[in-house]
Amino acid sequence: MSSPGQTKFLTAPRFAEIPWLVHGFGSKLWTLRDFKKGPEWQGFSVVWLKQIHSDVIHFIERPAERRLEGDALATDTAGLFLVIKTADCLPVFLADEAKRVIAAVHCGWRGTRLRILERVVLGLRERYGCRPGSLLAASGPCIGSSCYEVGEDVREAFAEAELPLTVFRRVPGKSGKYFLNLGEANRLQLLRAGLRASNLFDVAGCTHCDPNFHSFRRDKNDAGRLYNFIGIRGEG
User: Fold this and answer.
1) Residue pair 95/135 in contact by the 8 Å Cβ criterion
2) Of 133, 149, 145, 148, which is closest to residue 195 (Cα–Cα)?
3) Residue 55 pLDDT class (50, 70, 90 cuts)
4) 77 in a domain, yes or no?
5) Number of structural domains in the chain
6) Taking the CB of residue 205, how many other CB atoms lie within 10 A of it?
7) Is 161 inside any structural domain?
8) Residue 207, number of CB atoms within 10 A of its CB
9) Does some domain include residue 167?
10) Report field, pTM of the whole predicted structure over 0.85
């Protein structure tokens, strides 16, 4: 796997082994225009959401005529790039290797509190017959556990949702402030949903620390967005 300074997107090696699947966690160098470049991208339509930090999931078979609102996309249809935009939040891809089903999920702290990954796993089981123990999951770069400072309100929201509070640690010298490990919070959620630990993969990188990624916490309103994509290749 190349560093983000050397490539337009990063890949999870286990996902790259699947011949019918194409995916990438975008760096600053990857733009919407790149989806139209190169022969390997021909025949794909880009599908992305108006992300609203929710637990709303869309199961799609074709590009929507209007922009859908929500934070997760799933399909078993070839030729669709499911795109999640991030700038510190966690992008997660799910894949069922045998059933040729994929999902792309936007996991900010609000979506995590709403258990969006658990809901996606349940939806894949109900819609496509996917067994949680057979699903693969790849998590992309997000803000790191030593950079994501949150207030008491976020910790209380996790407590009310009965989510593990071990993902929080106090910020030294700051009362009522905590560091949130967003990646770990969602890893625990995938395990709770029935995925096997051996089927969870992490494409490491802190968006706040690494200038090759966009970061809202670092750059505020000047921050761009990272385009994370997953799709199913057509037969042949």
Assistant:
1) yes
2) 133
3) very high
4) yes
5) 1
6) 19
7) no
8) 29
9) no
10) yes
Residue type for 202, please?
A: D
Going edge to edge, which strands form the sheet with 72-75? Answer: 57-59, 72-75, 101-107, 90-96, 136-139, 200-202
Is 108 part of any domain? yes
Domain ranges, residue 81: 9-143+185-232
118-146 mean pLDDT: 98
Q: What is the DSSP string of the chain?
A: ---TTTSSEE--HHHHT-TTEEEEEE-TT--GGGGGSSGGGTT-EEEE-B--SS--EEE-SS--SSPPBSSEEEE--TTEEEEEEESSSEEEEEEETTTTEEEEEEE-HHHHHTTHHHHHHHHHHHHH---GGG-EEEE--B--TTT-EEEHHHHHHHHHTT--GGGEEEPTT-TTEEEE-HHHHHHHHHHHTT--GGGEEE---BTTT-TTS--HHHHGGG---EEEEEEEPPP-
**103 within 8 A of 94, measured Cβ to Cβ:** yes
Rg (CA), the chain: 17
CATH of the domain at 207: 3.60.140.10
pLDDT tens per residue, range 161-182: 999 999 999 999 999 999 999 9
